[in-house]
Design a protein that fits this description.
Blueprint lengths: L23 H11 L4 E7 L3 E6 L11 H11 L10 E4 L3 H10 L3 E8 L4 E8 L3 E8 L3 H5 L13
Parallel strand pairs: 3-6
Antiparallel strand pairs: 1-2, 4-5, 5-6
Length: 158
Amino acid sequence: MTVDDPDRTPAVRQLRLVVEVEDYEAAVAFFRDALGLPEQAAFSGDGDARVVILDAGRATLEIANPAQKRMIDEVEVGRQVAPKIRVAFEVDDSQSATRRLVAAGATEIAAPTVTPWQSLNSRLGAPGGLQITLFQELRSLDERAALGGFGTERGTED
C-alpha cells in the first residue's frame, strides 16, 4: 500500500506543539491576541499550572536536512541563525503581520523577503525562545510545482 492510498486511515489526528514559557501572560497575548490564533481550550491546575491550546489551522511537519536548513536561513535571514526547531505560520499578508507582531513584542530577525519557493517570508524572535517564520504564498501549489526544484517525495509502506 502506498502512503497516498485514499483508503488508508490516518494514524495521526493532530499535531500539537507544546512550548514552555516563563511569561505565560505575555506569550498568550502574543500568540492568541497579536498573531490571532483562536483559543480552543484552556486548563489550570494545582500550583498555578496553566495551559492554553490555540488553534493554528492546518498543521504540517516539515522535515529538512542540514543543507536545506542552512539554505532557508540564508534566504530568509542572510546568515545561519535558526535553532533545530522553528515554527512557521502561513498568513495572508506577511508585511502587515510582521509589523503587528513586532509592535506586540517580537524581535525582527529579518524583514519579509521573497524566497525561491515563491513565498514572502519574515523571521521573528517570539516568546518562549521560539524563532518563527511568517510566510505568505505568492503562487499556488500547482504553479510552484511547475518550477525547477519543486516536487514531492513519495515512499511506500512495507
